[in-house]
Write a structure and sequence with these properties.
alpha+beta, single chain, 434 Repressor (Amino-terminal Domain), 4-stranded antiparallel sheet
Length: 271
C-alpha cells in the first residue's frame, strides 16, 4: 500500500511539472504563431480552412488555453499544421511542445521487483547463456580469421604506453560567431540565437533561408550588395554587422526586419 501511494505521488508530481512546462511552451509558441499570422495578414478562419483545425482550437493555442485543447499529442499535430500553413517548419514547431513519455515516468527499482524474478535459478541460466554466447562469438572470430593470434602481455614486462589519438583541429564551419573568419564579401552578418526564433534571410535579392532556428545556433550570411534578415523573436536574435559588436535585433517576442548594405552603417545603430 505504501509503495502504491509513493508511485501515485511521484506520478502526480511529474504530471503537474509537465503541465507547467506545456503551458509555458504553449504561450511562447502561440504568441509567435499569432505574430507571424498577423504579419501575413491572415485570419484564424483562413488558417482553419487550410489546416482543417477548428478556429476555436487555433484561438486556444494562441492564447495558451491548455484546458480547452485535447490531449498533448493532438496539440503537437495542430501546431505542426498551423506552422506549415504559415510557411514555417511545422515539424520543429510541433516537437518544441513537450509530451509526456509514459515509459520514463516511473521505473521500478530492482528492490521492488517480485522475488520470483530474482531466484538463483534465473541467474544461473543467465550466466550459462552469457558464457555460451561468448564462446560462440570467439569460435566464430577464430573461424573467420584462422591466421589471427591472440597475444597476452607478459606479467614481467610492462605493456608499452598507448599514445592517445591526435585531436583533430576544429572545422572552420564550427567556429563561433564571436571569432569570425576573414570577411570575403562587402556585407557580412553573423547571427547568434540566444532564444528560439523563426527567421527569413535574403542575400542579394534571393531567399537563402526560412524556418525555425533553435537557441544556441550560430550562422553567418555574406553578400555582395545586401543581406536582409527578418526575425519573429527579435529579442532572441543577436546580429553582428561586418564583425562589429553583436546587438539584439529588437524586443523579445516582436517581429523585426533589418537591412544590411555595403558601405552603410548598421541599421541597428540608427534605432
Amino acid at each position: 500500500m505504501i509503495k502504491e501511494f509513493k508511485v501515485s505521488q511521484a506520478m502526480s508530481e511529474a504530471t503537474s511539472h509537465l503541465e507547467e512546462q506545456q503551458i509555458e511552451k504553449l504561450e511562447q509558441i502561440g504568441t509567435y504563431l499569432r505574430q507571424v499570422r498577423e504579419q501575413q495578414e491572415l485570419s484564424l478562419e483562413q488558417i482553419s480552412t487550410t489546416t482543417m483545425v477548428q478556429a476555436r482550437l487555433l484561438r486556444a493555442i494562441e492564447n495558451a488555453q491548455l484546458k480547452d485543447l485535447p490531449e498533448p499529442v493532438y496539440i503537437q499535430g495542430f501546431l505542426k499544421r498551423y506552422a506549415n500553413a504559415l510557411g514555417l517548419d511545422g515539424e520543429a514547431v510541433g516537437q518544441a511542445f513537450p509530451v509526456r513519455n509514459d515509459s520514463t515516468l516511473y521505473q521500478k527499482s530492482w528492490q521492488e521487483m517480485p522475488a520470483s524474478q530474482l531466484r538463483p535459478l534465473h541467474l544461473y541460466v543467465a550466466y550459462i547463456l552469457l558464457i555460451g554466447a561468448a564462446i560462440a562469438g570467439l569460435s566464430y572470430v577464430l573461424t573467420r580469421n584462422p591466421e589471427s593470434v591472440v597475444t597476452l602481455p607478459s606479467p614481467s614486462v610492462p605493456s608499452p604506453a598507448v599514445s592517445p589519438p591526435p585531436i583533430a583541429a576544429p572545422s572552420p564551419a564550427a567556429s563561433p560567431v564571436s571569432s569570425p573568419v576573414a570577411q570575403e564579401k562587402p556585407v557580412q552578418v553573423d547571427v547568434t540565437l540566444r532564444e528560439q526564433s523563426w527567421m527569413r534571410v535574403e542575400v542579394d535579392g534571393e531567399t537563402v533561408f526560412e524556418g525555425m532556428l533553435a537557441e544556441g545556433i550560430q550562422r553567418t550570411w555574406s553578400g555582395e550588395q545586401e543581406v536582409i534578415i527578418r526575425a519573429g523573436n527579435a529579442g532572441g536574435v543577436m546580429v553582428a554587422y561586418n564583425q562589429a559588436e553583436a546587438q539584439p535585433m529588437g524586443d523579445r517576442g516582436t517581429v523585426q526586419q533589418a537591412i544590411f548594405t555595403a558601405n552603410a552603417p548598421s541599421p541597428l545603430d540608427e534605432s
